[in-house]
Amino acid sequence: MKRQRIFLSFLLLPLSILYGIIIFIRNKFFDWGILPSRSFHIPLISVGNITVGGTGKTPHVEYLAELLRSEFNLAVLSRGYKRKSRGFRLAGKETTAREIGDEPRQIKKKHPDLTVAVDGNRTRGIEKLRHQIEGLDLILMDDAFQHRKVQVNLAILLIDYNKPISKDFMLPLGNLREQAFEKRRANIIIITKAPADLQPIQRRIFLDRLKPYPYQSVFFTTLEYDQPRAVFPEWTENPTGNPINTNTQVLLTSAIADARPLHNYIKNHLSQKITPLKFTDHHNFKSSDLKKIKHRFQRMENQEKVILTTEKDAVRFAEMQDIPEEIKKNMYYIPIRVKFLNDRTSDFNKQIIEYVRKNKKHSFLYPG
Fold first, then answer.
1. Topology of 44-224+339-365 in CATH?
2. Architecture of domain 227-334 in CATH?
3. What are the sequence ranges of the domains in the chain?
4. pTM of the full predicted structure?
5. Going edge to edge, which strands form the sheet with 274-278?
6. 311-318 and 102-110 helices cross at what angle (nearest 10)?
7. What confidence tens digit (pLDDT) does each residue in 103-126 have?
8. For residues 16 and 175, what is the distance between their CA atoms, to the nearest angstrom?
9. Of 11, 246, 337, 356, which is most buried, counting CB atoms within 10 Å of its CB?
10. 116 contacts 135 by C-beta, under 8 angstroms
């Protein structure tokens, strides 16, 4: 097995080097102005990463939206990864995940009065929002760190605490979308999924390896989990109660990049009897998948058993047709939110709010 991994690494290394050269040249062309980058008369805050998936972009975008929405008229703009539609789409309360993607749908479902839009062409998306939403103060751009055709005013870079970029390689050998030194473009760096009891020495070691620039603010966050909620509350006898105890067998069904934090939370706080059922990230569940889930659930011997999924996956399951009754009665999800560590919540909030107050303009008054 070890020999196979070494052999595969040798095969992938040239591809990673080639990919790295292409990305390096692309970034230099933007730095030198050879490739155009457009600015807008409105605060743009991007939340992104330089690794493939799993850094917690959606809960951090939700945190920012909740922080700013009481004072500012804001919109969230995403590309709508793996949606079945094209072009610009403004989300309504009944818009589905197939139309806008699971993450934008999750945000819209939790915050129905929030403006959420998707467009793979971010420049066009910003223009559409500025002309359609009167009095727009700012736009939160989800997963836009690599989208350099737009000049972002405040770039927030997320780095997984468990996957430091200093030890990673470029795709396809590793998980880096671009070189680790491109962290230089970030104004704020957030180290996500850190241990809730992060010690000062652990924080110092991570920062020594990261080597942030003096102009960058660095924060650490962890994930907090809420009580399980029914995906289909109308089918569940106790939709608001916790269905899991130490004797409950859990079928953990997930289609996210990294389900380990959720797995560890269940193991440490709910039940150690966990059967994982993993699908690829952003997987579009089909009837064959439902049969697989039902079959795996029926094979579980405990009388006390549940199907537990992620908040993002719950959005897709809730919109599916012909879901077996047994799944509807027993499927739950756990909402998540981010928490800033080291008593830095007020520092982060102050930096974001002061930036928007200083830079906001009503975008519909300006042609860009």
1. Rossmann fold (3.40.50)
2. 3-Layer(aba) Sandwich (3.40)
3. 44-224+339-365, 227-334
4. 0.93
5. 229-230, 331-334, 305-310, 249-254, 274-278
6. 90
7. 999 999 999 999 999 999 999 999
8. 10
9. 356
10. no
Locate 236 and state its tokens. Answer: 């569940």
